[in-house]
Give the backbone structure.
Amino acid sequence: MARMGRFEVHGKVVETPALLPVVNPKICTVPPRELYERFGFKALITNSYIIRGTPALRDRALEVGLHEMLDYPGVIMTDSGTFQSHMYGEVDLKNEEIVQFQKDIGTDIGTVLDIFTEPFWTKEQTAASIEVTLERTEAACAMKGDMLINGVIQGSVYQDLREDCARRMAGMDIDVHPIGGVVPLMEQYRYSELVDVVMSSKRGINHGRPVHLFGAGHPMILALATLMGCDLFDSAGYAKFARDDRMMFIDGTFRLSDMQSLDCDCPACRGRSLDELRRMDKNSRTKTIAEHNLYQITRELALVKRYLREGRLWELAEIRCRAHPALLDALRRLKEHQAQMEEYDPVSRDGAIFYTGPESRGRPAYKRYLDRLARYRAPTDKAALFPDSQGKPYGRAYAEEFDKARKAGYTPVVASPFGPVPAELDEMYPIAQSLFPSIPDSETETESDRLTFQFLSMAGFKEAVPFDRIPEGGTEEYDGDLLRAKAVARHQFGCEAADALFRGEVKLVKSKNTGKIRNVISDGEHVLSMRAGDGLYTLKMEGARRIVSAVPAPYMRVKVMDDAVPFVSDGRNVFAQFVVSCDPGLRPMEETIIVDVGDNPVATGRLFLTPAEMPFMKKGMAVKVRSGSSDD
Ligand SMILES: [Zn+2]
């Protein structure tokens, strides 16, 4: 669900995921100009409520504008004082007044005066407060003018309220979605509930808008929050902790008085000892620690972006969540949202999947593999069971044994950490493109055995033997390539589509160098090509035509407007604003068929967005088109 974005605000560009340092307009720990130039923060948050309540600041902000007052050229977001009025019980604050004030001082992104909900509130109390927040959000949208507006999703720990609040805001003229009311959860280390809050908010959200996890800024949470699809974060802690002599590190926050050594090579600490830092005067020490805290944040954010670009953010999140047992709870809770995450997970990636522990099985790729295994049809009614092997693909590691099994009428099945893997599927993503430790853990081993035995009965095997009990001297003939070609097609496209693709006389074209399947020719027509990298197919135009006539709409289809048809059939990509509808079962990077409104195939390509995101995207590529109908 993680995404990289370009968020453009009044001509200024912020690359997401991004963190916005919170600047207290009264206490300037690190000057905003330095935040921008030295640390590279292209956006910050300050509090319009404090500015408004401090006559000198208020007059200056109204006179010269917020950017000049703070000497900050980047994007400025202002908070409305919701938290302060909640904490200190202010009642004189009015939504319209504070929104108007934010406009008057030239804020880039202003915030509604929403109602802060505490996790201990009853559901009725929470639901009633959401109604007020929604009314105020409508009012703010109507008067926002050029200012962008934050529509804060509330709902406390009640997942249905969060989802409903997000859904009701989806149609409003909102620009950014903070997920609010999570600070108490983070302060109390209730990270597993934080996962529920974010995931339920995302279920109803308008995906075309940036999502801001309000109050989340500790480096230890950034990888996990980005993984769940949060784009913006903020940190008041870098300065607050510094004033309190507390240092942020990737594995927690530590008091200067408790630390045994500094051992930090960030630019603020480099060359300093713990004693030197302790002996500094209060102001210099506060600034040094605040800078250290900011460096910890920027370093982790850079790492999150690198892993995100490489498609490996799951691994970083899994590693980070081992820093504290409460974070491990969060990672484990995420497994309960596996089905939701699966909708956003690409069907294949360039790199291999690394296993970091039993929690790795919570990743969407594991669920998807097992879900699609239900499409498997066993070619024989006897199975030979093999243990997992370090060598991949299994067909190469067990070449002789697999052949012996086939000749004796047995289908080889490996009990892998993904679950059972029939020999035909061993080269396919993610089976061959994954790495597991050679010393297995008992949890995954037990689960693998359980899934394998369940599979044997579900797939219709009548008999199963361990691989060392395969009878000698079998003479049955088999075509391993054809079995693989068909099994992968069923796994990838479903049984009905695979039957249409493999009808009549089937000829396989193989690579002369590797001996791997390249093209599938059925009744003289080139319907599929197999990719060497992930062992999955690309769909040819003739294959697309067959699927469209064999399987009813909307299966595998992306329907486009008439205006787009001539361009798409010429091989141009499909952009989100031209999509009429989309098969909700499609996944990112999946092969898809572009059809016109009359369900006539126009082109084939790979899906770049999820079906859930597509209706909300006003621009951007929805399908990367490979071949249009005018090519052949
Ligand atoms: Zn440091």
